[in-house]
From TrEMBL, chain A:
Every Carrier domain range: 975-1051
InterPro entries xref list: AA_adenyl_dom (IPR010071), AB_hydrolase_fold (IPR029058), ACP-like_sf (IPR036736), AMP-bd_C (IPR025110), AMP-bd_C_sf (IPR045851), AMP-binding_CS (IPR020845), AMP-dep_synth/lig_dom (IPR000873), ANL_N_sf (IPR042099)
Domain of life: Bacteria
GO molecular function: 2,3-dihydroxybenzoate-serine ligase activity; phosphopantetheine binding
GO CC term (a single one): enterobactin synthetase complex
Keyword Hydrolase belongs to the record: no
Keywords: Phosphopantetheine, Phosphoprotein
Protein name: Enterobactin synthetase component F
PROSITE patterns per UniProt: AMP_BINDING, CARRIER
GO biological process: amino acid activation for nonribosomal peptide biosynthetic process; enterobactin biosynthetic process
From TrEMBL, chain B:
Domain Carrier: 6-79
Name of the featured protein: Aryl carrier domain-containing protein
Annotated source species: Paracoccus chinensis
Gene3D superfamilies, sorted: ACP-like
UniProt xrefs under InterPro entries: ACP-like_sf, PP-bd_ACP
Lineage: Bacteria, Pseudomonadati, Pseudomonadota, Alphaproteobacteria, Rhodobacterales
Length: 1324, 81
């Protein structure tokens, strides 16, 4: 019997209780199933069987009473079997299922109502459904099996008159087993074993990105595994002397590892019952064991499965240790950090129970939370196996779930048949066939001709039509024909012809367009040069490409000082032809002798007036143009495109979008970008008009809008960032065009929607590298397109888009892979660089020539391609893309290192750049850092340096990355002395993974701690000392010695004092005060403060009203005056610097005046995405819930992304689950924060600004503010403003990512302010 | 495959280890044998072999007591009684 006051929860129950307590309204823990009973049912026997089962299963009577820190369980009244006759319903089965679904979706009051419910639905005389629903806290999956089978046993005994089976053991056995394990030394051994086993575990992910926390529902797809697969599984496992359950788990893990970068950490549900006293106790005992599975794709299956099976056996030996506890041990708290990803649940025992005289089917409705993906196998190879895919609908679509359900069985069969994983594609045969069908659908007949022939045909067909417009000059096709023919003739004289190159360096002009057509008519390929590029680069390109002629203008000729004028050779007009007549060996010898080679330079002023086009037409396989792109090594690469390729691209575009002679196409892209190719030539092959924008217009939205209107432009191209700027310009409102094309950058859904709200035109997204004739894919971004992300779409004619994994195997929809291109548009290669050509133009698995784009992509379920980013030696740190090779090259360039490797290391959940160097010369960390700071953006300078004698290498001579030691974020000073200091030093070392305890002066945050690790520190301190110091104490006293005094009973304000020193620094320098945002707390500035220290001290100003006993201020001015007095008390002599985020910036602006009022000098005044009171005046004051939602923004979340959090409980629950210190605030502080948010918002609305002294430095959140147009301009009426911007959303402005960009801005602004304050000193 | 000699704890350990493709010293007295992979099918095979060798014990207790130490204790108790 259970004690009257109740029993504490077992460890197994605690994790579930915590999950349910976070959101009491989530019904996902109602596990449910029903039995489909066919045959003549003995109703009385069934009633009795259920009653007897309930009577002997104490767990079904549990109630849970919340107490401080958890719950107590007591026994309540037993549930009773409900009985409903549905046989009169039109569809009794549907009605029954509907009632079950309703019941399962109902959140339970665990304190007051039964955890279990049983219902019998009579569908007809020979068909009944027995529904069971039990809360997971009371019973796990095996407990449900015990209870269900028990009902069957009782029923059969009653019907057959046989003896009653042995009753269940008492529930107290579960409590005893729990208590015994808690008290045993085994628990600590297990903890150590798991900690070691998970050492170096990868960041856990599932197949889908996102926050994996179970919602209220799940998606399911189930199917019976084919019997031949089961037979092979059983036979193969027996032959290898392995358990089929282990083999099934291993291969399922291999499938998942394809989705998680080669290693998956799967969760394996573990019954923890067999061979134990609780084997037959209906209770909650199940654990989930994290299992790292890293299959060897090349090895024979048995060679990696056998060791894995041994590992899993070893893990089960330690399987009593709760995974919830392990998760805490490893610091994997917070919504995004997980111990395991998808679950692999092999349940051999889950078979329908026996009911005498009845045929029984078993249907599982729900088995608990589905955080990510749960892959369940019910049954065994002999009796058959049901495979279920349950998925979190927040992460997976129904198509995703159906995909996994279809793919895994095929993967299992193929892997067992092949005996190895490497030959098995992740995509199914059907998926591979669908991809092939898309390529087949793109096949289109295109004439085998040249761009030259198409242009000439058009000029002949419509001689009178306008071909070119530049300013107020219009050329007809006949004019273009005549002038390009004359120039072509001259070019031919100079040596131009098929397979030669003519370089062009001209500003946008009629001459540029004529020159390009003329070069093509001479049969040559054109090479565009940007006159603005550095002369060294231009010279290098000319040297590599060896053009026969350089076409430029007298104004630009000075950029090419080394090139001879054609006048020098004009006396020998046959020289070009002569040269062409030489054998290539002789020509090459002549050229070598003349190094540096100098093409003949033809100036626009020297173009002849008379002449005819040469008869040297190019062939479809000749090169049409050469465009240089930047190479990762720093050496530009010349991409050679042939006529056949660009003809395909242009004719596709003409047909697909229906271009006609009435179209007027804007030419605004510099000729060095390949987008310009269709701008220049699409009009010439469609009979349309090319309108050339004035030079420089492509950077000026207002000028562009004017051009589009005045010239009646129908078609224009924009790079998305330029389109964004264009839409933001007042002049673009209401523009009408036929179509706008985007390419060159990712077109976002947000930009698409903004476009259609402002401009009346079709919008098309195009994608393609220079290496494949401009564009290879298209997507209509129509007003009704709701895609997000917006795809790059479908292949153009005769083109293949292939997404393949690292081994060249096709990937299924949803799985990121490398994008390869095939088809007629591929470039010939890189000019003179066969090595680079061979690297990127490869032979695909089916023998086709493919170009490896280096782009990552994935397929949608409809086959459309989505661009995901680059696959190169790139990492992302705080959202910023970084080429590690570029940093390494910069270090080597300093001459201070013999070898260098840069890694992005994850330390305590934060990625940091660490450089490993073998030094040489006058090495010092300061010297090399200074060298890098001059060459790289600040976020690319490593945060830590590790000096080594040599870089570690593996046996085959490759860099052994795993052997590179973790960096030491050093701290010096006296060693910890007192007991409290020693304890804290060891806890700092534990939480920050330091090699040894830091000294007593060490600052938690300076050692790399963040708010999340501070939460962990406070938990650990409480565990060790039994006293919770409060998170705020760590924020207020992050130095060991000071925090030790607090633990020993010293005073702390809990981090709520109005002036909080965030970072220690040089007291001789002007300090910086960071004014709290709406919530009144300044803790969020910790990261920013450390980025600006130790050059100066950085303080947070916090709202005095955080103390509930303090009165609230009358006005914002009064609040600022109070802050000014506090600052003056601390720093009697100025100047002081001020900054604030959000409302903090509004207060800082007023505070600047308040300080001036009392005679204190103010340096920088910075507002981080703050806007004046006038903007907010019309808004209603926030109610308590919206004040709470403001906390989300303060915690760095976008409140608009979480509209479901509409109650205090939900907001607090969300914050507690996330990695923000706000979630760990004591209740009364949270109340104070809400009080301060509400009050401060009101103060802002009633505030009237006065002009601020000096200049306001404004840093705008560049990713926008929803539908509001907020800019620094709004501050102009109140004084001088300096406008800066960073690419973040408002809530992320003081996040670590943003601090990387903002800290240098503020540092520079403070330096400037100090310069201004000392004009005399500066003048000396 | 199952030994015919009089049953000892060490012989049982060796048989179990063989069935699980492990070394005898890897099977500890307090290891939960189902956790090591000893499912009911394999257990049945072992028990049949041991019964053939003359061992009499209530193997029903195996379900709730899954360690060799517990088994041997029960066997000794039975032999004593």
């Amino acid at each position: 019997m259970r004690a009257m006051g109740g029993t504490p929860l077992t460890e197994a129950q605690e994790g579930l209780w915590y999950f349910q307590a976070l959101d009491p309204s989530n019904p996902i823990l109602n596990t449910g199933q029903y039995l489909d009973l066919h045959g003549p049912l003995d109703e009385a026997a069934l009633r009795e069987a259920v009653a007897r089962t309930i009577a002997e299963s104490e767990a079904l009577r549990l109630r849970f009473r919340p107490v401080a820190g958890g719950a107590m369980q007591v026994l309540g009244e037993p549930p009773e079997l409900e009985w409903a006759d549905l046989s009169d319903h039109a569809d009794p089965e549907a009605e029954a299922l509907c009632r079950m679904a309703e019941d399962s979706a109902r959140p339970l009051d665990l304190a007051a109502e039964p955890v279990a419910a049983f219902s019998l639905y009579r569908l007809g005389p020979d068909r009944h459904l027995l529904y069971e629903r039990i809360h997971h806290l009371a019973l796990d999956g095996y407990g449900m099996v015990l209870v269900t089978n028990r009902i069957g046993d009782h029923y059969s005994a009653l019907v057959n008159g046989t003896s009653v089976p042995v009753p269940f053991p008492p529930l107290s056995r579960a409590d005893e087993a729990d208590a015994a394990y808690r008290a045993s030394p085994k628990r600590a051994e297990d903890a150590a074993w798991w900690r070691a086993a998970m050492q170096g575990m990868p960041e856990v992910t599932g197949p889908a990105p996102g926050r994996a926390v179970s919602g209220a529902t799940f998606l399911r797809e189930s199917r019976w595994l084919p019997s031949d697969l089961l037979a092979v599984l059983a036979e193969w496992s027996d032959a290898q002397r392995l358990n089929w359950t282990d083999v099934l788990t291993a291969l399922t893990g291999a499938y998942l590892s394809r989705w998680t970068g080669g290693e998956v950490v799967a969760g394996l549900p573990f019954m923890v019952r067999m061979g134990r006293p609780i084997a037959r106790v209906p209770c909650m005992a199940m654990n989930v064991l994290p299992q790292r599975i890293r299959p060897d794709e090349d090895a024979l299956l048995a060679d990696w499965i056998a060791p894995l099976a041994a590992e899993m056996r070893e893990a089960r030996r330690h399987g009593l240790y709760r995974s919830e506890q392990l998760r805490r041990d490893l610091g994997l708290i917070g919504g995004a950090r997980r111990l395991y990803g998808p679950l692999i649940n092999v349940q051999p025992f889950d078979r329908p129970p026996g009911f005498a005289g009845l045929e029984v089917g078993l249907h599982i409705l729900g088995a608990g939370a589905v955080d990510d993906l749960t892959l369940t196998f019910r049954g065994d190879p002999i009796s058959g196996m049901l495979f279920e895919v349950d998925a979190n609908p927040g992460l997976y679509s129904p198509e995703d779930v159906a995909g996994h359900a279809a793919r895994l069985p095929a993967f299992l069969s193929a892997a067992l048949a092949q005996g190895r994983l490497a030959p098995v594609p992740t995509a199914t045969a059907d998926e591979i066939a669908s991809a092939k069908a898309l390529t087949a659908a793109a096949v289109h007949s295109v004439p085998d001709t040249t761009l030259t022939a198409l242009i000439e045909a058009q000029m002949e067909a419509t001689p009178e039509a306008p071909a070119l417009v530049f300013g107020d000059v219009t050329l007809s096709y006949a004019d273009l024909d005549r002038r390009s023919a004359v120039l072509a003739g001259r070019l031919a004289e100079l040596g131009a012809g098929p397979e030669t190159i003519v370089a062009v360096a001209l500003d946008r002009s009629l001459e540029l367009s004529i020159a390009l057509v003329a070069i093509l008519r001479a049969g040559a390929a054109y090479l565009p040069l940007d006159p603005d590029h550095p002369p060294e680069r231009l010279a290098r390109i000319l040297d590599r490409a060896a053009p026969v002629v350089l076409l430029t203008s007298p104004e630009l000729a000075g950029r090419f000082p080394d090139f001879g004028q054609t006048d020098d050779i004009a006396d020998s007009p046959a020289s070009g032809k002569q040269s062409a007549g030489l054998t290539s060996a002789v020509r090459s010898a002549v050229q070598n002798a003349a190094r540096p080679r100098m093409p003949q330079c033809l100036l626009t002023s020297d173009w002849p007036q008379e002449g005819t086009a040469p008869a040297t037409p190019p062939q479809p396989g000749n090169m049409a143009y050469v465009i240089y792109t930047s190479g990762s090594t720093g050496e530009p690469k010349g991409v050679v495109i042939e006529h056949r390729a660009i003809v395909n691209r242009l004719l596709w575009m003409r047909d697909h979008y229906g271009f006609t002679p009435r179209d007027r196409i804007l030419q605004k892209t510099p000729a060095t970008f390949d987008v310009s190719v269709w701008e220049f030539f699409l009009p010439c092959i469609s009979g349309a008009t090319l309108v050339m924008a004035p030079p420089g217009a492509h950077r000026d939205p207002t000028l562009l809008a004017g051009e589009i209107r005045s010239h009646g432009i129908t078609t224009a191209h924009f790079v998305p960032s330029m389109l964004s700027a264009f839409l933001a310009a007042p002049a673009s409102g209401g523009i009408r065009m036929a179509r706008v094309f985007c390419s060159g950058e990712e077109l976002t859904a947000e930009l698409r929607d903004r476009f259609h709200a402002r401009v009346s035109a079709e919008l098309h997204n195009l994608y393609g590298p220079t290496e494949a004739a401009v564009d290879v894919s298209y997507w209509p971004a129509a007003p009704d397109d709701a895609s997000n992300p917006l795809p790059i779409g479908w292949p153009v004619w005769n083109t293949r888009l292939a997404v393949l994994d690292v081994r060249g195997r096709p990937v299924p929809p949803g799985l990121p892979g490398n994008l390869y291109l095939g088809g007629v548009q591929l470039a010939r290669g890189y000019l003179g660089r066969d090595d680079l050509t061979a690297e990127r133009f490869v032979t695909g698995p089916d023998g086709q020539r493919l170009y490896a784009t280096g782009d990552l992509a994935r397929l949608r379920h409809d086959g459309a391609v989505i661009y995901l980013g680059r696959s190169d030696h790139q990492v992302k740190i705080r959202g910023l893309r970084i080429e590690l090779g570029e940093i390494e090259a910069a270090i080597m360039g300093s001459g201070l290192a013999r070898e260098a490797v840069v890694l992005a290391r994850e330390e305590g959940g934060d990625k940091r750049l660490v450089a490993y160097v073998v030094p040489q010369g006058r090495w010092s960390e300061q010297a090399v850092a200074a060298h890098l700071e001059a060459r790289l953006p600040a976020y690319m300078v490593p945060q830590a340096w590790v000096v080594l004698d040599a870089l570690p290498v593996t046996s085959n001579g490759k860099l052994d990355r795993k052997s590179l030691p973790a960096p030491v974020f050093a701290a010096a000073g006296r060693a910890a002395e007192t007991a409290a200091e020693t304890l804290l030093a060891s806890l700092y070392a534990e939480i920050l993974t330091l090699p040894e305890p830091p000294p007593a002066e060490a600052d938690f945050f300076a050692l790399g701690g963040d708010s999340l690790s501070a939460v962990r520190l406070s938990l650990r301190i409480e565990e060790e000392t039994g006293r919770d110091p409060g998170l705020g104490a760590i924020f207020e006293h992050p130095v060991i010695a000071a925090l030790a005094r607090v633990i020993e009973g010293g005073a702390t304000t809990g981090g709520l004092s109005p002036l909080l020193l965030l970072a220690e620094g040089d007291p001789a320098q002007s300090p910086l005060f960071l004014v709290h945002p709406a919530g009144g707390l300044g803790w969020g500035y910790r990261r920013l403060a450390h980025a600006l220290a130790p050059a100066r001290r950085v303080w947070a100003i916090q709202h005095p009203g955080l103390d509930p006993d303090q009165p609230l201020p009358e006005s914002l001015s009064a609040l600022a005056a109070d802050y000014a007095r506090r600052i003056a008390g601390l720093v009697p002599e100025g100047p002081v610097h001020l900054a604030g985020w959000s409302v903090g910036g509004v207060i800082a602006q007023e505070l600047a005046s308040a300080l001036a009022d009392i005679g204190l000098d103010v340096g920088m005044v910075a507002a981080l995405d703050s806007y004046p009171a006038d903007v907010w005046r019309a808004e209603p004051d926030p109610d308590p819930v919206s004040a709470l939602r403001a906390l989300l923004a303060i915690a760095g979340h976008d409140p608009e992304a979480h509209t479901e959090l509409d109650t205090r409980e939900k907001v607090v629950g969300f914050l507690k689950a996330g990695d923000t210190p706000l979630g760990a605030l004591p209740e009364q502080v949270l109340d104070s924060v809400v009080r301060v948010v509400t009050d401060t918002s009101g103060l802002v609305r009633r505030h009237h600004h006065r002009p601020h002294p000096g200049r306001l430095t404004h840093v705008r959140a560049g990713l926008g503010h929803g539908d509001r147009h907020l800019t620094a301009e709004l501050w102009r009426p109140h004084g001088e403003v300096e406008a800066l911007e960073v690419p973040f959303l408002h809530p992320r402005m003081i996040s670590p990512e943003a601090v990387v960009l903002i800290a240098p801005m503020l540092k520079a602004a403070m330096d400037r302010a100090e310069q201004r304050a000392l004009p005399q000193a500066a003048a000396e | 495959m199952i030994t015919k000699a009089p049953i000892t704890r060490e012989l049982m350990r060796a048989d179990i280890a063989k069935m699980l493709h492990m070394q005898p010293e890897e099977v500890q007295d307090d290891d939960n044998l189902p956790d090591l992979g000893l499912d009911s099918l394999r257990l049945m095979k072992l028990v049949l072999g041991w019964e053939e060798a003359g061992l009499k014990a209530d193997f029903g207790l195996f379900a709730e007591h899954g360690t060799l130490g517990e088994w041997w204790q029960a066997i000794e108790a039975q032999q004593a009684g």
